[in-house]
């Protein structure tokens, strides 16, 4: 009987608790409806802040999850090479041809797989009349096991030099629904291969996301005659070497084991001379994407810097939204002092009042959270386009929901703490007698929060301006050649090379172009370098490395490079086949005072310097120009680019149409890519511009959130001082006087925030700029623009409420007195 009574009491207690919670939520909802403007500002500001945080969080998740789709990820690495060139330690992710064999022979027990590979790039795959261009690579057999490639058809083996395995998307593109196994395809119109397997598409969010087919390494080695092609195989660092370390060792141990392997090998081959020697190390897969930058042989970060940057921005934008929420919640709660007094007078205990205020705060926070999800859904397509991502909301992720709900709870509890704990402690007799005053110090926390809010916003504004100024500074840098009307055609095969002179004559006769030339690389992307050159007065201890490009004699006229000394290549001079044109950076590095006429030695051949060109930007626009030399081609097989100068008298569209027609005439099945050089040059700034645009969007939203807060606070202040404004108007105060009175406090707070934000932003942006060799300065006008902008935004935001209050009829505000 007693047990049943206890059960009934507990049951009734639970029912009462549920009724109380329902009442709390009902009252909270009524308060939201009653104060529509402040509720809208509160929910809107918090929702925007949450939406920004969710977008940034999804972006960071996408960055951190890069390359995580491989089972052996923690044991996979690429072999990298630190060696001294031009008095600096250069870090290469390319390796020499014999390296993979040497590692297997000397350290076989330390590796589960050693895989030699070329570079993933575009290749033509032809099956009968069907032709597609797909990205693929030539790799040694162990790659399929190393990357845990899952086959859907056939075998993963790459032991047959005449085989090829395709991704599902590539097999579908070539064969449709037909069975691809044992079908013969042609790679780049010269290598026959039999399809022996089809594998699941590799994760897009990975370093191998573009690997849509894999051909055996031996196929490439045979077709390119690698066994006999190189006089010094260790000097041709054209390849990549991937490894998977053995299960019984660690990355650090294996990296230490192989460190001196190449250096010692070269010493043994050259009787102790290893002037071109270098130190090897393993760069783990989990660091490829985020920690890909090296400076002076040491890891210097990479995209991880942007992860930290946007993580900090996300936290600060969320902080701004929370500050708004807390400011407006605490400000509005002071008006409810009488409500607290009445509730206490009729029997409410403090715990009930605390629960009431917390329920209101939590309701707003959760409404804002779900509104933020709707905002994210609306913005995600544009955000993905801007960020060049394929991000989706992680609806099925428990972590996502746990973080969202936890944050909503945390924000609601923090924002509701002031009214819940402070107001619930009031003595009802003082409140109801009218003797209760909040006090002058009560506004100090809100003022501090406003200062923090605008300081963060100003830092974001200044940071965004500096990022765009750095981009413009690099864009306006002299490039050393003419990008206007310049086209580059990247060739996939040698068919057009064989008929180059006839093609060139027809192109010039067509009137579509004014100059034509061939080159080993595109002028804006030089990846080939050579060392071991000598010149008069060279210090034997200097380890040199020059960018190099084989070009035809019309290259200078076509690209518009600028001759600083000497002359250009000239077909009339047979001796130019053994001539160099060097850039100013090369002259400076070699220390030659009168370089024209001097002789340089390269691969036991002598070359006379006939000209010096101004430095050209053909790698990163943020780095100093590298020492470079140009020479006439010896092997036409090395030439893979045709450069065309469009006739300015003909429109680009018509010119490209004529160029296409002539290319098709000489090779109907040709596959090539026509690229405007100015567009390719613009790609050098894509990453920084993307980061700048994202930062500017977030800075704009931060300002918007701050303005919402100011608007709400100005509205509250104007409402709080209604009677004071009425008295001042009756005594003769003008609208301008009252506007000054109400705006002054906010302007003072913004000025304080500017004094804090200026040194902070200078410190962080100055540190950021140090990562660029070619960088802009931080000038005073940036801070002036940010300061004026912040003040104007503040005045515009506050003025609406100030002028509205100043124009109000004082009779209405004073008649209750």
Layout of SSEs?
Blueprint: H1 2-34, H2 36-64, E1 76-85, E2 88-92, H3 99-106, E3 111-117, E4 121-127, E5 130-139, H4 143-146, E6 151-154, E7 163-167, H5 168-175, E8 184-187, E9 191-199, E10 213-216, H6 217-223, H7 226-229, E11 240-245, H8 251-258, H9 261-269, E12 279-284, E13 294-295, E14 298-299, H10 304-333, H11 337-345, H12 350-387, H13 398-422, H14 428-433, H15 444-475, E15 486-491, H16 495-498, H17 500-510, E16 513-519, E17 529-530, E18 546-550, H18 555-559, E19 563-566, E20 579-583, H19 584-590, E21 599-602, E22 605-613, E23 628-631, E24 641-646, H20 652-666, E25 672-676, H21 677-682, H22 686-720, H23 722-730, H24 735-769, H25 780-807, H26 810-814
Parallel strand pairs: 5-10, 7-9, 18-23, 20-22
Antiparallel strand pairs: 1-2, 1-11, 1-12, 3-11, 4-5, 4-8, 6-9, 7-10, 8-9, 13-14, 15-24, 15-25, 16-24, 17-18, 19-22, 20-23, 21-22
What features would you describe in this structure?
The protein is of the alpha+beta class. It is built from 26 helices and 25 strands. The strands form five sheets. Strands 17, 18, 19, 20, 21, 22 and 23 form a seven-stranded mixed β-sheet that branches. Strands 4-5-10-7-9-8 form a six-stranded mixed barrel. The two termini are 64 Å apart. The model has no long low-confidence stretch (mean pLDDT 83).
* Structure class: alpha+beta
Number of helices: 26
Distance separating the two termini: 64 Å
**Record field, number of beta strands:** 25
Averaged pLDDT = 83
Uncertain runs with pLDDT below 50, 5 residues or more?
A: none
* Radius of gyration, CA atoms, in whole angstroms: 35 Å
* Percent of residues in helices: 40-55%
Largest sheet: 7 strands, mixed
Strand share of the residues? Answer: 15-25%
Rough outline: elongated
């Amino acid at each position: 009987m007693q047990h049943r009574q206890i059960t009934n009491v507990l049951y009734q207690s639970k029912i009462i608790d549920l009724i109380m919670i329902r009442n709390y939520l009902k009252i909270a909802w009524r308060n939201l409806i009653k104060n529509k403007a402040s509720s809208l500002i509160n929910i809107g500001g918090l929702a925007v802040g949450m939406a920004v945080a969710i977008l940034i969080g999804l972006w960071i998740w996408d960055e951190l999850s890069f390359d995580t789709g491989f089972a052996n990820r923690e044991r996979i690495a690429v072999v990298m090479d630190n060696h001294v060139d031009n008095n600096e330690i250069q870090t290469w992710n390319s390796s020499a041809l014999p390296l993979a064999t040497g590692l297997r022979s000397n350290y076989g027990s330390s590796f589960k797989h050693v895989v030699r590979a070329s570079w993933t790039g575009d290749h033509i795959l032809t099956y009968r009349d069907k032709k597609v261009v797909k990205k693929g690579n030539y790799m040694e057999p162990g790659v399929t096991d190393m990357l845990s490639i899952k086959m859907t058809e056939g075998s993963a083996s790459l032991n047959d030099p005449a085989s090829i395995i395709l991704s599902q998307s590539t097999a579908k593109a070539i064969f449709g629904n037909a069975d691809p196994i044992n079908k013969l395809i042609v790679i780049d119109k010269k290598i026959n291969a039999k399809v022996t397997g089809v594998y699941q598409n590799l994760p897009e969010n990975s370093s191998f996301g573009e690997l849509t087919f894999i051909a055996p390494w031996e196929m490439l080695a045979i077709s390119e005659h690698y066994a006999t092609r190189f006089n010094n195989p260790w000097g041709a660092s054209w390849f990549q070497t991937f490894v998977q370390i053995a299960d019984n060792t660690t990355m650090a141990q294996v990296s230490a084991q192989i460190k001196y392997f190449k250096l010692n090998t070269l010493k043994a081959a050259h009787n102790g001379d290893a002037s071109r020697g270098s130190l090897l190390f393993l760069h783990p897969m989990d660091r490829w994407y985020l920690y890909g930058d090296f400076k002076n042989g040491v890891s210097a970060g990479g995209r991880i810097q942007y992860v930290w940057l946007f993580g900090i921005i996300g936290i600060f934008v969320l902080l701004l939204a929370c500050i708004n929420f807390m400011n407006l919640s605490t400000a509005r709660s002071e008006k409810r002092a009488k409500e607290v007094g009445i509730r206490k007078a009729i029997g409410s205990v403090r715990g009930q009042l605390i629960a009431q205020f917390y329920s209101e705060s939590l309701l707003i926070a959760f409404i804002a959270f779900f509104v933020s999800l709707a905002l994210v859904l609306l913005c995600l397509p544009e955000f993905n386009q801007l960020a060049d991502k394929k991000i989706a909301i992680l609806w099925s992720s428990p972590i996502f929901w746990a973080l969202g709900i936890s944050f909503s709870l945390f924000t609601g509890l923090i924002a509701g703490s002031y009214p819940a704990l402070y107001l619930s402690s009031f003595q009802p007799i003082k409140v109801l007698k009218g003797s209760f005053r909040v006090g002058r110090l009560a506004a100090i926390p809100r003022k501090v929060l406003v200062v923090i809010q605008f300081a963060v916003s100003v830092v974001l504004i200044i940071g965004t301006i500096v990022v765009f100024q750095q981009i413009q500074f690099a864009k306006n840098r002299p490039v050393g050649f003419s990008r206007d009307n310049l086209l580059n055609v990247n060739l996939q095969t040698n068919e057009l090379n064989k008929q180059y002179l006839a093609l060139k004559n027809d192109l010039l006769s067509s009137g579509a172009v004014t100059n034509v030339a061939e080159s080993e690389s595109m002028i804006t992307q030089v990846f080939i370098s050579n060392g071991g050159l000598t010149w008069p007065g060279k210090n034997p201890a200097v380890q040199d490395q020059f960018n190099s490009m084989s070009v035809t004699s019309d290259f200078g006229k076509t690209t518009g490079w600028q001759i600083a000394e000497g002359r250009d290549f000239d077909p009339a001079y047979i001796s130019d086949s053994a001539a160099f044109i060097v850039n100013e950076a090369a002259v400076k590095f070699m220390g030659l005072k009168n370089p024209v006429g001097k002789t340089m030695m390269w691969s036991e051949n002598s070359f006379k310097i006939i000209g010096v060109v101004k430095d050209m930007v053909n790698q990163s626009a943020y780095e100093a120009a590298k020492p470079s030399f140009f020479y006439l081609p010896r092997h036409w097989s090395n030439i893979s680019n045709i450069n065309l100068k469009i006739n300015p008298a003909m429109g680009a569209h018509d010119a490209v149409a004529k160029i296409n027609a002539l290319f098709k005439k000489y090779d109907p099945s040709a596959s090539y890519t026509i690229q405007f050089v100015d567009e390719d040059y613009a790609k050098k700034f894509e990453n920084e511009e993307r980061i700048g645009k994202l930062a500017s969007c977030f800075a704009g939203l931060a300002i918007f959130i701050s303005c919402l807060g100011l608007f709400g606070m100005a509205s509250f202040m104007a409402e709080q001082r209604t009677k004071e404004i009425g008295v001042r108007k009756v005594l003769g105060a003008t609208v301008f006087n009252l506007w000054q009175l109400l705006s002054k406090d906010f302007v003072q707070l913004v000025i304080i925030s500017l004094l804090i934000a200026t040194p902070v932003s200078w410190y962080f942006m100055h540190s950021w700029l140090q990562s660029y060799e070619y960088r802009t300065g931080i000038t005073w006008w940036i801070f002036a623009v940010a300061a004026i902008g912040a003040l104007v935004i503040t005045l515009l935001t506050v003025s609406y409420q100030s002028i509205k209050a100043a124009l109000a009829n004082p009779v209405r505000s004073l008649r209750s007195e």
